């Protein structure tokens, strides 16, 4: 019963299998998993997959997220144009 | 000169704006959506007493009140940063910067995904997306849909789609995988659904909620639950013993491959079949949308009973960061009535900070009202909400004494 891969990070097209295997081989944190796979680094800023990344890490390493947020937020927290950020004269 | 900027024009943000303006503050509310009202805009359901909760009407009422008080509301504005300054906050948005003494984040919640093969096909949407398209934009999401994920929110929205004349063929669980987990476990889903059984028009569910208090009885009942066919609410089959394996389609959704599952969620080989559909709604529940609280430097608490990470805050809806307030679903997943009550607290609390609240009892009454509204809520999103709220309060007090 081979079906299509399960995409977890839609923006960067990272699959569940890739995330699971990476988390397993490196026994890593959400942040390391993000940096290794680019999951959560796309256009939406991880709004769709950040919880899923935390779940995978929890499943593989047994570590549940602590009180501080595992994957940090950086401004801009919405997609914006360079112009808006001060690029226009 | 704006005294307070509120991000989010939902029940919490509007109620807070009203409370501030009633005490002489200059209020500006911004919202990303083209219309004010937030999640209220999509809500339509029958209460157990037979009356209807019409969110659209509720939003209209709050909006009229806010506008009458001179609250400035700007929609279609996305806030992308909030930085602390000497005098207060510098808030960056798609429509310019705002310098304000006080900032209230009432940004609400976002939806959790349930990834399945094929979930990126056109025609797959979140259940909340389907709700907004149907009830706000009046766009028909499709002819025949399947809802993947059975929870309080998805059952309520499936009913709304049905009321709009859209055919919801069935509701099934997602196949279990590391990112669907409890959502794919019939026992867990059944338990959570029993908590809202009093809302159901079906005798099975009503009877169930009375009979099935014990774990043993729940297990027994689940064994006898028919898998394909399932129980029905408002005529919509809710199949707790069927799971979506895959969403099928070439260029868009054509159907969903489902399989019978046992009470633990394990698929029964040989029972797969493809159900035709032209749209699929994914329903993974909600989590607090805290991005701005994070960039503003607010400390957090991780409490699954509140939906995940929530900004630390006290009963007055103050965070440990000076001049930063929170209200509504950003503080934990609950209904619109609780959000509105929290908004009022936040508004009064801000007025008090400005020295514009001579009647101190208004604030303590508003804080008590949040409790009362919570206890009377028809929909409890999580059985341990009260516990989670108590933990946040204690952590916030602890944080203050440590600082």
UniProtKB/TrEMBL annotation, chain A:
One Pfam family matching this protein: Fer2_BFD
Domain of life: Bacteria
Domain BFD-like [2Fe-2S]-binding: 7-58
Gene3D superfamilies per the UniProt record, alphabetical: BFD-like [2Fe-2S]-binding domain
Record's protein name: (2Fe-2S)-binding protein
Organism encoding this protein: Brevibacillus panacihumi
Organismal lineage: Bacteria, Bacillati, Bacillota, Bacilli, Bacillales
From TrEMBL, chain B:
Species this chain originates from: Brevibacillus panacihumi
Cofactor(s) needed for function: FAD
Residue ranges of domain FAD/NAD(P)-binding in the record: 3-168
SUPFAM superfamilies with a match to the protein in the record: FAD/NAD(P)-binding domain
Protein name: FAD-dependent oxidoreductase
Molecular function GO labels: oxidoreductase activity
MnmG N-terminal domain segment(s): 314-353
Keyword tags: FAD, Flavoprotein, Oxidoreductase
